[in-house]
Amino acid sequence: MELDAGxxxxxxxxxxxxxxxxxxxxxxxxxxxMRAFRYDIAAIEIIPWQDGAFxxxxxxxxxxxxxxxxxxxxxxxxxxxxxxxxAA
Length: 88
Prior knowledge:
Elements: E1 11-17, H1 23-37, E2 43-49, E3 54-58, E4 61-65, H2 66-69, H3 75-87
Parallel strand pairs: 1-2
Antiparallel strand pairs: 1-3, 3-4
């Protein structure tokens, strides 16, 4: 199934600290996005990084940064950001 041609594709990028053991949360968030959007999301990019990073961007708009916001984002926060991009 293809993405709706009337909507711009939505891409999510998750940058996580590989040495911090953030993989389980990263994969859980990616799974939540896949379940929520199935065919309505163009890509989920997962980038291993370092230094305690955990950043989530939707179409290059940073929606959560561990440095800026602290902790991990609620799945609903990221899902709502994707929904907002799909509605735009």
